[in-house]
Amino acid sequence: MSEVEASLRLRPRGSNQVGMRQFNERVVLQAIRLHGALPKAEIARLTHLTAQTVQIIIARLEADGLVRKCAPVRGKIGQPSVPMALNPDGAYSIGIKIGRRSLDVLLVDCPPGHTAPYARGAVGMALSGKDTGGSQWFVTHSPQPHLDGGYTVFGRVVSGMEVVDRIVRGDVIRRITITEPR
């Protein structure tokens, strides 16, 4: 991706105005999400925020556990740069699709490169090709090693597997409760 394309994908740009903290935090997080681990100077260049603003935002995001420091990059001129990356354990992602007759909600907690095995009780997303995921989930009744690494495990049944075992084709699921692990 060229610098121009990368810059265009980050619009709207950040602002240094008072009261824009949350907006600027989202701009910084988006830059890291799109480009991977970045040093603060590069984040400032991509977002058009001042270095001081980026320093303050990164300190807050790090204190909140949303970003983490990576190993310093040495071998370049000057001080080693310390890239900042998204913390894979820092937050959940939620997706909501509202249709005319349906509502799909998806809560995902999977770090980049996460390849949990499809053991009994794994909750995964059905895919039938590129860009088809998101609306059909499945729960494995037994280990399914052929799915490992090819499909994202985004949940696990932690209680009530006996109910899952009784589900048959055509059953209607009226309620699913998603809880945060303790």
Q: What features would you describe in this structure?
A:
With 182 residues, this protein is an alpha+beta fold. It folds into 2 domains: 3-86, Winged helix-like DNA-binding domain superfamily/Winged helix DNA-binding domain (Arc Repressor Mutant, subunit A), CATH 1.10.10.10; 93-166, Cyclophilin. Helices cover 27% and strands 16% of the residues. The strands form 3 sheets. The protein has a 3-stranded antiparallel beta sheet, with no helix packed on it. It has a two-stranded antiparallel ribbon with strand order 1-2.
Distance between the termini: 40 Å
Number of separate strands: 7
**Going by CATH, what is the homologous superfamily of the largest domain?**
Winged helix-like DNA-binding domain superfamily/Winged helix DNA-binding domain
Question: Remind me, CATH topology of the largest domain?
Answer: Arc Repressor Mutant, subunit A
Q: Structural class, judged by helices and strands?
A: alpha+beta
Number of discrete domains = 2
Main beta sheet: 3 strands, antiparallel
Helix count, per DSSP?
5
Mean pLDDT: 75
C-alpha Rg, in Å? 21 Å
**Any idea what the CATH architecture of the largest domain is?**
Orthogonal Bundle
Regions with pLDDT < 50 over 5+ consecutive residues? none
Shape: elongated
The succession of helices and strands, N to C, reads HHHHEEEEEEEH
Looking at the chains present, what oligomeric state does this protein adopt?
single chain
Estimate what percentage of residues fall within beta strands: 15-25%
Largest sheet, spatial ordering of strands: 6-5-7
Q: Can you tell me the CATH class of the largest domain?
A: Mainly Alpha
Please bin the fraction of helical residues. Answer: 25-40%
